[in-house]
Amino acid sequence: MKPQEVFILAGEASGDVKGGGLVEAVRSINPQVHFWGVGGNRMREAGAEIFIDSRELSVNGLMEVVVHLRRIWYIYRRLCDALRARRPDLVVLIDFPDFNLFFARQVNRLAIPLLWYVSPQVWAWRRYRLAKIARRISRMMVVFPFELPLYRDRGVPVDFVGHPLVDLARPRLSRADTLRKLGLDPGRPMIALLPGSRRSELARIYPTLLRAAEIMARQRPDLQFATPVAPTLDRFAVAAQTARAGVEVVPADNLTYEVMAAADAAVVAAGTATIECALVGTPMVMVYRLSTFTYLWRPLIGLEHYCMVNLIAGAGVVPELVQADCSPERVANAALDLLGAAGVVQRQALAEVRARLGPEGANLRAARVLLDMLGSVPHAEGAA
Q1: What dotted CATH number matches 172-356?
Q2: pTM
Protein backbone atom coordinates (compact mmCIF):
# COMPACT_ATOMS: atom_id res chain seq x y z
CA MET A 1 0.00 0.00 0.00
CA LYS A 2 1.34 3.45 -0.98
CA PRO A 3 2.28 5.53 2.11
CA GLN A 4 0.21 8.65 2.65
CA GLU A 5 2.01 11.80 1.54
CA VAL A 6 1.81 15.20 3.19
CA PHE A 7 3.23 18.33 1.58
CA ILE A 8 4.36 20.77 4.28
CA LEU A 9 5.51 24.37 3.79
CA ALA A 10 7.41 26.30 6.46
CA GLY A 11 8.94 29.42 4.92
CA GLU A 12 11.04 30.68 7.84
CA ALA A 13 13.01 29.48 10.85
CA SER A 14 10.14 29.62 13.35
CA GLY A 15 7.94 27.60 11.00
CA ASP A 16 10.70 25.04 10.54
CA VAL A 17 10.80 24.52 14.32
CA LYS A 18 7.02 24.08 14.51
CA GLY A 19 7.03 21.87 11.42
CA GLY A 20 9.77 19.67 12.84
CA GLY A 21 7.78 19.14 16.03
CA LEU A 22 4.65 18.33 14.04
CA VAL A 23 6.41 15.85 11.73
CA GLU A 24 8.03 14.15 14.70
CA ALA A 25 4.73 13.84 16.57
CA VAL A 26 2.86 12.46 13.53
CA ARG A 27 5.56 9.89 12.82
CA SER A 28 5.55 8.79 16.46
CA ILE A 29 1.91 7.76 15.93
CA ASN A 30 2.07 6.64 12.29
CA PRO A 31 5.62 6.20 10.94
CA GLN A 32 4.26 5.45 7.44
CA VAL A 33 3.24 9.06 6.74
CA HIS A 34 5.77 10.68 4.38
CA PHE A 35 6.37 14.44 4.60
CA TRP A 36 8.00 16.52 1.90
CA GLY A 37 8.13 20.20 1.02
CA VAL A 38 9.75 23.44 2.21
CA GLY A 39 11.63 23.50 5.50
CA GLY A 40 14.99 23.55 7.19
CA ASN A 41 17.24 21.50 9.43
CA ARG A 42 14.64 20.86 12.13
CA MET A 43 12.16 19.32 9.70
CA ARG A 44 14.94 17.39 7.99
CA GLU A 45 16.02 15.92 11.33
CA ALA A 46 12.42 14.91 12.03
CA GLY A 47 12.35 12.86 8.82
CA ALA A 48 10.82 15.23 6.25
CA GLU A 49 12.10 15.27 2.67
CA ILE A 50 13.25 18.85 2.09
CA PHE A 51 12.37 19.74 -1.49
CA ILE A 52 13.34 23.42 -1.10
CA ASP A 53 15.23 24.91 1.84
CA SER A 54 13.22 27.56 3.71
CA ARG A 55 16.21 29.93 3.59
CA GLU A 56 15.43 30.48 -0.10
CA LEU A 57 12.07 32.02 0.82
CA SER A 58 12.99 33.91 3.97
CA VAL A 59 12.49 37.59 3.20
CA ASN A 60 10.69 40.23 5.22
CA GLY A 61 8.74 43.33 4.25
CA LEU A 62 7.33 44.61 0.97
CA MET A 63 10.56 46.12 -0.31
CA GLU A 64 12.51 42.93 0.43
CA VAL A 65 9.91 40.87 -1.46
CA VAL A 66 10.16 43.21 -4.47
CA VAL A 67 13.95 42.87 -4.54
CA HIS A 68 13.77 39.06 -4.49
CA LEU A 69 10.57 38.68 -6.51
CA ARG A 70 12.16 36.75 -9.40
CA ARG A 71 13.58 34.12 -7.04
CA ILE A 72 10.32 33.84 -5.09
CA TRP A 73 8.32 33.41 -8.30
CA TYR A 74 10.71 30.70 -9.52
CA ILE A 75 10.28 28.79 -6.25
CA TYR A 76 6.50 29.21 -6.44
CA ARG A 77 6.43 27.70 -9.94
CA ARG A 78 8.62 24.78 -8.84
CA LEU A 79 6.31 24.07 -5.94
CA CYS A 80 3.21 24.23 -8.14
CA ASP A 81 4.77 21.82 -10.64
CA ALA A 82 5.79 19.43 -7.86
CA LEU A 83 2.33 19.58 -6.31
CA ARG A 84 0.66 18.69 -9.64
CA ALA A 85 3.14 15.86 -10.25
CA ARG A 86 3.04 14.26 -6.81
CA ARG A 87 -0.55 14.99 -5.72
CA PRO A 88 -0.09 14.62 -1.94
CA ASP A 89 -2.99 13.47 0.24
CA LEU A 90 -2.84 16.63 2.36
CA VAL A 91 -1.15 20.05 2.31
CA VAL A 92 -0.02 21.68 5.57
CA LEU A 93 0.88 25.38 5.48
CA ILE A 94 2.63 26.84 8.54
CA ASP A 95 2.16 30.57 9.20
CA PHE A 96 4.13 32.56 6.51
CA PRO A 97 0.82 34.12 5.40
CA ASP A 98 1.56 36.25 2.34
CA PHE A 99 3.23 33.47 0.36
CA ASN A 100 1.05 30.69 1.76
CA LEU A 101 -2.25 32.45 1.03
CA PHE A 102 -1.17 32.89 -2.58
CA PHE A 103 0.05 29.29 -2.81
CA ALA A 104 -3.25 28.07 -1.31
CA ARG A 105 -5.00 29.02 -4.57
CA GLN A 106 -3.00 26.35 -6.39
CA VAL A 107 -3.83 23.81 -3.70
CA ASN A 108 -7.53 24.65 -4.14
CA ARG A 109 -7.33 24.19 -7.92
CA LEU A 110 -5.99 20.67 -7.35
CA ALA A 111 -8.74 19.94 -4.79
CA ILE A 112 -6.21 18.82 -2.17
CA PRO A 113 -7.34 19.21 1.47
CA LEU A 114 -5.49 22.09 3.13
CA LEU A 115 -4.64 22.31 6.83
CA TRP A 116 -3.25 25.63 8.09
CA TYR A 117 -1.08 25.57 11.22
CA VAL A 118 -0.57 28.84 13.16
CA SER A 119 -3.05 31.50 12.14
CA PRO A 120 -1.85 34.75 10.60
CA GLN A 121 -2.16 37.57 13.13
CA VAL A 122 -5.48 38.73 11.74
CA TRP A 123 -6.54 39.67 15.26
CA ALA A 124 -3.79 42.30 15.24
CA TRP A 125 -3.79 43.72 11.71
CA ARG A 126 -5.14 43.17 8.18
CA ARG A 127 -8.27 41.52 9.55
CA TYR A 128 -9.78 41.49 6.06
CA ARG A 129 -7.64 38.43 5.30
CA LEU A 130 -10.04 36.28 7.31
CA ALA A 131 -12.50 36.04 4.43
CA LYS A 132 -9.77 34.91 2.03
CA ILE A 133 -8.41 32.37 4.51
CA ALA A 134 -11.89 30.99 5.14
CA ARG A 135 -12.40 30.41 1.39
CA ARG A 136 -9.08 28.69 0.82
CA ILE A 137 -8.48 26.31 3.72
CA SER A 138 -10.13 23.10 4.88
CA ARG A 139 -9.20 23.42 8.53
CA MET A 140 -7.25 25.73 10.86
CA MET A 141 -5.10 24.91 13.89
CA VAL A 142 -4.66 27.94 16.17
CA VAL A 143 -2.13 28.41 18.95
CA PHE A 144 -3.96 31.09 20.98
CA PRO A 145 -7.41 30.42 22.49
CA PHE A 146 -8.74 33.86 21.57
CA GLU A 147 -8.30 32.98 17.88
CA LEU A 148 -11.01 30.28 17.99
CA PRO A 149 -14.08 32.53 17.52
CA LEU A 150 -12.46 34.32 14.57
CA TYR A 151 -12.77 31.13 12.53
CA ARG A 152 -15.81 29.56 14.18
CA ASP A 153 -17.84 32.66 13.36
CA ARG A 154 -16.98 32.17 9.68
CA GLY A 155 -17.80 28.48 9.62
CA VAL A 156 -14.17 27.32 9.34
CA PRO A 157 -13.36 24.04 11.16
CA VAL A 158 -10.85 25.12 13.80
CA ASP A 159 -8.86 23.46 16.58
CA PHE A 160 -7.03 25.11 19.45
CA VAL A 161 -3.94 22.95 19.93
CA GLY A 162 -1.93 25.23 22.23
CA HIS A 163 1.42 26.80 21.46
CA PRO A 164 4.10 24.29 20.33
CA LEU A 165 6.85 26.42 21.85
CA VAL A 166 5.54 25.47 25.31
CA ASP A 167 7.02 22.03 24.60
CA LEU A 168 10.02 23.19 22.63
CA ALA A 169 11.40 26.19 24.54
CA ARG A 170 13.32 24.18 27.11
CA PRO A 171 17.04 24.64 27.73
CA ARG A 172 19.05 21.42 27.88
CA LEU A 173 21.85 22.92 29.97
CA SER A 174 22.01 24.86 33.21
CA ARG A 175 22.99 28.51 33.16
CA ALA A 176 26.48 27.72 34.45
CA ASP A 177 27.03 24.94 31.91
CA THR A 178 25.79 27.12 29.05
CA LEU A 179 28.12 29.98 29.91
CA ARG A 180 31.10 27.68 30.41
CA LYS A 181 30.39 26.05 27.04
CA LEU A 182 30.57 29.51 25.47
CA GLY A 183 33.75 30.40 27.34
CA LEU A 184 31.92 32.94 29.51
CA ASP A 185 32.00 33.48 33.28
CA PRO A 186 28.94 32.14 35.17
CA GLY A 187 29.67 34.65 37.92
CA ARG A 188 29.04 37.68 35.66
CA PRO A 189 25.77 38.92 34.08
CA MET A 190 25.13 38.12 30.42
CA ILE A 191 22.91 39.84 27.85
CA ALA A 192 21.65 37.92 24.83
CA LEU A 193 21.38 39.63 21.44
CA LEU A 194 18.82 38.09 19.06
CA PRO A 195 18.70 40.02 15.75
CA GLY A 196 16.19 37.70 14.01
CA SER A 197 16.34 34.76 11.63
CA ARG A 198 16.27 36.54 8.26
CA ARG A 199 19.22 37.87 6.29
CA SER A 200 17.51 41.25 5.96
CA GLU A 201 17.18 41.43 9.76
CA LEU A 202 20.84 40.59 10.22
CA ALA A 203 21.77 43.48 7.93
CA ARG A 204 19.29 45.98 9.34
CA ILE A 205 19.15 45.14 13.08
CA TYR A 206 22.35 43.42 14.17
CA PRO A 207 24.67 46.45 13.72
CA THR A 208 22.43 48.43 16.08
CA LEU A 209 22.54 45.64 18.66
CA LEU A 210 26.33 45.49 18.47
CA ARG A 211 26.65 49.24 18.96
CA ALA A 212 24.24 49.01 21.89
CA ALA A 213 26.44 46.28 23.38
CA GLU A 214 29.45 48.59 23.12
CA ILE A 215 27.55 51.30 25.05
CA MET A 216 26.43 48.81 27.71
CA ALA A 217 29.95 47.46 28.12
CA ARG A 218 31.29 50.95 28.76
CA GLN A 219 28.71 51.53 31.48
CA ARG A 220 28.90 48.02 32.91
CA PRO A 221 32.34 46.46 32.25
CA ASP A 222 31.21 43.27 34.02
CA LEU A 223 28.67 42.48 31.27
CA GLN A 224 29.07 39.61 28.80
CA PHE A 225 27.25 39.18 25.49
CA ALA A 226 26.19 36.20 23.40
CA THR A 227 24.14 35.88 20.23
CA PRO A 228 22.39 32.65 19.16
CA VAL A 229 22.84 32.09 15.43
CA ALA A 230 19.58 31.13 13.69
CA PRO A 231 19.95 28.13 11.35
CA THR A 232 18.62 30.25 8.46
CA LEU A 233 21.60 32.62 8.74
CA ASP A 234 25.11 32.20 7.44
CA ARG A 235 27.17 31.78 10.60
CA PHE A 236 30.23 33.23 8.84
CA ALA A 237 28.29 36.41 8.01
CA VAL A 238 27.26 36.65 11.67
CA ALA A 239 30.83 36.05 12.80
CA ALA A 240 32.17 38.70 10.39
CA GLN A 241 29.81 41.36 11.74
CA THR A 242 30.50 40.32 15.31
CA ALA A 243 34.27 40.50 14.83
CA ARG A 244 34.00 44.16 13.78
CA ALA A 245 32.25 45.14 17.02
CA GLY A 246 34.12 47.04 19.71
CA VAL A 247 33.06 44.50 22.33
CA GLU A 248 33.28 40.71 22.54
CA VAL A 249 30.02 39.01 21.53
CA VAL A 250 30.11 35.22 21.48
CA PRO A 251 28.15 33.54 18.63
CA ALA A 252 26.30 30.40 19.76
CA ASP A 253 25.25 27.61 17.40
CA ASN A 254 22.37 25.29 18.36
CA LEU A 255 22.03 26.85 21.81
CA THR A 256 19.16 29.30 21.31
CA TYR A 257 17.06 28.31 24.32
CA GLU A 258 20.13 27.78 26.48
CA VAL A 259 21.43 31.30 25.75
CA MET A 260 17.97 32.83 26.25
CA ALA A 261 17.51 31.10 29.60
CA ALA A 262 21.05 31.88 30.76
CA ALA A 263 20.72 35.59 29.94
CA ASP A 264 19.96 38.15 32.64
CA ALA A 265 18.26 40.20 29.91
CA ALA A 266 17.79 39.95 26.15
CA VAL A 267 17.49 42.31 23.19
CA VAL A 268 15.17 40.55 20.76
CA ALA A 269 13.93 41.25 17.24
CA ALA A 270 10.14 41.24 16.94
CA GLY A 271 8.64 37.85 16.21
CA THR A 272 8.56 34.33 17.60
CA ALA A 273 11.75 34.85 19.63
CA THR A 274 9.83 37.16 21.97
CA ILE A 275 7.47 34.27 22.78
CA GLU A 276 10.45 31.99 23.35
CA CYS A 277 12.02 34.48 25.75
CA ALA A 278 8.72 34.75 27.61
CA LEU A 279 8.54 30.97 27.96
CA VAL A 280 12.02 30.72 29.49
CA GLY A 281 11.25 33.74 31.67
CA THR A 282 13.97 36.11 30.47
CA PRO A 283 13.16 39.85 30.58
CA MET A 284 13.61 41.48 27.21
CA VAL A 285 13.40 44.63 25.12
CA MET A 286 11.90 44.18 21.65
CA VAL A 287 13.52 45.94 18.69
CA TYR A 288 12.70 46.18 15.02
CA ARG A 289 13.65 48.00 11.84
CA LEU A 290 12.05 47.72 8.41
CA SER A 291 12.92 49.57 5.24
CA THR A 292 11.26 53.01 5.38
CA PHE A 293 9.06 52.09 2.40
CA THR A 294 7.80 48.90 4.05
CA TYR A 295 7.23 50.62 7.38
CA LEU A 296 5.12 53.38 5.84
CA TRP A 297 3.15 50.83 3.82
CA ARG A 298 2.23 48.56 6.72
CA PRO A 299 -1.39 49.19 7.73
CA LEU A 300 -0.90 49.05 11.49
CA ILE A 301 -3.65 51.48 12.39
CA GLY A 302 -5.37 50.33 15.55
CA LEU A 303 -2.56 48.03 16.62
CA GLU A 304 -1.49 49.18 20.06
CA HIS A 305 1.55 46.90 20.37
CA TYR A 306 4.08 45.37 18.01
CA CYS A 307 5.46 42.74 20.37
CA MET A 308 3.62 39.41 20.38
CA VAL A 309 4.11 39.12 24.14
CA ASN A 310 2.40 42.47 24.68
CA LEU A 311 -0.44 41.50 22.37
CA ILE A 312 -1.01 38.32 24.38
CA ALA A 313 -0.73 40.16 27.70
CA GLY A 314 -2.92 43.03 26.53
CA ALA A 315 -0.43 45.42 28.11
CA GLY A 316 3.00 46.95 27.54
CA VAL A 317 4.95 44.28 29.42
CA VAL A 318 7.96 44.42 27.06
CA PRO A 319 9.57 47.73 25.98
CA GLU A 320 9.23 48.21 22.21
CA LEU A 321 11.82 50.13 20.18
CA VAL A 322 10.79 50.37 16.53
CA GLN A 323 12.30 52.30 13.59
CA ALA A 324 13.74 55.64 14.82
CA ASP A 325 13.33 54.56 18.45
CA CYS A 326 15.60 51.59 17.73
CA SER A 327 18.83 53.52 18.29
CA PRO A 328 21.91 52.04 20.00
CA GLU A 329 21.54 54.46 22.94
CA ARG A 330 17.88 53.66 23.58
CA VAL A 331 18.42 49.93 23.17
CA ALA A 332 21.32 50.03 25.64
CA ASN A 333 19.38 52.04 28.22
CA ALA A 334 16.31 49.79 27.99
CA ALA A 335 18.39 46.63 28.35
CA LEU A 336 20.36 47.99 31.30
CA ASP A 337 17.09 48.87 33.06
CA LEU A 338 16.12 45.20 32.92
CA LEU A 339 19.11 44.29 35.10
CA GLY A 340 17.34 46.05 37.99
CA ALA A 341 13.81 46.30 39.35
CA ALA A 342 12.25 46.54 35.88
CA GLY A 343 13.51 43.05 35.10
CA VAL A 344 11.95 41.63 38.27
CA VAL A 345 8.57 43.15 37.40
CA GLN A 346 8.74 41.87 33.81
CA ARG A 347 9.60 38.32 34.93
CA GLN A 348 6.37 38.25 36.96
CA ALA A 349 4.35 39.45 33.98
CA LEU A 350 6.00 36.89 31.68
CA ALA A 351 4.86 34.09 33.98
CA GLU A 352 1.25 35.17 33.33
CA VAL A 353 1.89 35.22 29.57
CA ARG A 354 3.29 31.70 29.80
CA ALA A 355 0.07 30.51 31.46
CA ARG A 356 -2.03 31.92 28.58
CA LEU A 357 -0.16 29.89 25.97
CA GLY A 358 -1.91 26.66 26.93
CA PRO A 359 -0.79 23.32 28.38
CA GLU A 360 2.02 21.10 27.14
CA GLY A 361 1.38 18.61 24.35
CA ALA A 362 0.60 20.99 21.44
CA ASN A 363 2.60 18.94 18.94
CA LEU A 364 0.71 15.75 19.78
CA ARG A 365 -2.68 17.49 19.61
CA ALA A 366 -1.73 19.02 16.24
CA ALA A 367 -0.55 15.61 15.00
CA ARG A 368 -3.91 14.05 15.85
CA VAL A 369 -5.75 16.76 13.92
CA LEU A 370 -3.52 16.11 10.91
CA LEU A 371 -4.01 12.34 11.12
CA ASP A 372 -7.73 12.88 11.51
CA MET A 373 -7.71 14.66 8.16
CA LEU A 374 -5.81 11.74 6.65
CA GLY A 375 -8.32 9.34 8.20
CA SER A 376 -5.56 7.62 10.20
CA VAL A 377 -6.91 8.09 13.74
CA PRO A 378 -10.15 9.08 15.46
CA HIS A 379 -10.65 12.82 16.03
CA ALA A 380 -8.65 14.08 19.02
CA GLU A 381 -10.70 14.36 22.19
CA GLY A 382 -11.31 17.96 23.14
CA ALA A 383 -10.54 19.43 19.72
CA ALA A 384 -12.71 22.37 18.81
Answers
A1: 3.40.50.2000
A2: 0.76
